[in-house]
From TrEMBL:
Annotated binding of substrate, by residue: 58
Protein name: Putative phosphohistidine phosphatase, SixA
Pfam families for the chain: His_Phos_1
Domain of life of the native organism: Bacteria
InterPro entries per UniProt: His_Pase_superF_clade-1 (IPR013078), His_PPase_superfam (IPR029033)
Length: 164
């Protein structure tokens, strides 16, 4: 069984209007939410084989704050512009090309792309995929055969629902 962890970046700061969208850091709430999520995933014992992360500062910071919970070394992360500029087809193509020895993959990126990805793979509608939400999708099959008929939404974790 393969698992795809889909993490939307935490809440970003709009304090400096002169920054480009790509360079916006996390807001205080985003930092707190990412820390809460880190504790949650650590307590669950989730492990990752590979991380694909957007090159945007807020996505990188979100993963930096949660990496310890996933017991994943930050320097082994694959950063890609496809998760900032790309779309669902780019992500699915990359997932289908993964080595079969990899079972647990984390994708860190942005909406609306990640919301649509979760809905497509899980073959179900979700109301909202807000900042710092983590979806866990199970896939019964090989990466090359990734499609909604072999996937299901296992969990949708929202920091606001987690204990402090």
């Amino acid at each position: 069984m393969k698992e795809i962890f889909v993490l939307r970046h935490a809440k970003s700061s709009w304090d400096n209007v002169n920054l480009s969208d790509h360079d916006r850091p996390l807001a205080d709430r985003g930092i707190k939410d990412a820390a809460k999520l880190c504790v949650f995933v650590k307590n669950k014992g989730y492990m990752l084989d590979k991380v694909l992360c957007s090159t945007a500062k807020r996505a990188k910071e979100t993963f930096d704050l949660t990496a310890d919970g996933f017991n994943f070394e930050i320097d082994k992360t694959t950063y890609t512009d496809k998760l900032y500029f790309g779309d669902i087809t780019d992500i699915i193509k990359d997932l289908r090309e993964l080595d079969e020895s990899l079972n647990n993959i984390l994708i860190v990126g942005h909406n609306p792309t990640l919301h649509h990805l979760v809905e497509l793979l899980a073959n179900e509608q979700i109301d909202r995929f807000t900042t710092c939400n983590l979806a866990i999708i199970s896939h019964a099959g090989k990466w090359i055969s990734l499609n909604s008929h072999k996937c299901s939404l296992k969990s949708l974790i929202r920091p606001k629902d987690l204990a402090n």
